[in-house]
Amino acid sequence: MSIASRAHDSPSSTTRRQGSIRVKSHASDFAVFGGQPAFESTLHVGQPNVGRRTDLLRRFNDLLDRRWLSNDGPYVQELEQALATRLGVRHVVAVANGTVGLDIAVRAAGLTGEVIVPAFTFVATAHVLLWQGLTPVFCDVDPATHNLSPESVEALVSRRVTGIIGVHLWGRAAAVEELDDIARQHGLTLIYDAAHALLCSHRGRMVGGFGKAEVFSFHATKFVNSFEGGAIATDDDQIAHRARLMRNFGFTDYDEVQALGTNGKMSEVGAAMGLTSLESADEFVAVNRRNYLAYRRGLAAVPGIYLLSYAEAEQNNYQYVVVEVDGERAGLSRDHVQRLLQAENVIARRYFYPGCHRLAPYRSMPRYSDLQLPATDAVASRVLCLPTGTAVSVEAIDAICHVLAAAVGNGPEIARRLQDLRIGPTDLAAFERARS
Ligand code: T4K
Fold it and tell me: Both 427 and 294 in a single domain?
């Protein structure tokens, strides 16, 4: 990534440079209206972190020399041990990805019938349930935390419900005490989708040990990655045993299958990346925190664009920089902001718009077609994730914040011009036409 370095050459614009930032003062300075983009190359949310390359390549050589590429190899075992130690849990079962991990955890924990899940989450959380014939009961979130609202969970408990999947969205822990109480009172099994929450804590305790099991993702876009990958963490010996069997077709010996299972194994090459990534995790967190603080400084005085905060008393991985755009105060909707940034070569993401209940296949299923989840709708219409991670410098963040401040400064005019151009949130063709 590099901030645009050429001086602006369009005679029709007043864009000028200040330090390394291309200053935008008027609506016409924005790339969406023909100005020079703030960045010459594209900035993404989720650009992968890469740990120490020499260690990674050494591990690749080792595993090739060993000719042990998968099936519970030494790197997988080492990664599981390293994670169990860092998380303070009895068992970690490494898996091929977070989705398979959730699938296995749901089965290993014995969930049946209906399961309460937030609608404001990555669709995988819901898909694993429907995929195995269970019924997701979509629940609203608390608009302040973006996590399951315990009151709404309580209201959805019925005799068909056997469990709850809480999500620690953005790495901020769910309301674990309240959810624990509800689960205990009603005899429900509580598990967590901890895809975002590796190395995060709640009241000083590491995520990984809450509920019956917690599932992490080590997808390429996560701050610790194993290319693809995930892990189930649990203190429950039975769940761990079942998860290990299920991960490997139910095999207990060469010719002995004891249970139904799938292929959820992590490869050795993935585990090598995971170990290397985990070794640099504290450095990644430090960069993410630096970036988060840079956004906090840069957006502090921008009306209508509010950065979601992380509790400093806890351990956080800061891997998601999340803002909420208040359209009225900013003079621009979230979708307008996303469009503007896209033209500046900043690909911000509307995670997790529009909420699972409004995605296929759920939205056309009678159970969900009229479902009203006002907090989910409101949050999903405001949230925008901004680029961070080791591929993003403070200088780049200053430039993004400058673009956002200037956009809000010209909010009503920009909104009007975008509307005149009929640029909608997913209208890429119109966007390209407007740019050319
Ligand atoms: N539960 C929750 C709450 C989750 O958020 C997720 C996954 C899961 C469960 C399931 O875990 P996994 O089965 O995935 O392990 C991405 C990720 O694919 C997904 O892992 C993640 N959550 C989700 C929030 O984000 P997309 O659809 O946004 O991916 P994509 O291809 O648009 O990539 C995101 C950005 O990252 C792009 O702008 C480009 C950049 N990127 C991506 C890759 C793969 C790179 O720069 N390099 C890369 O190698 O889902």
Answer: yes
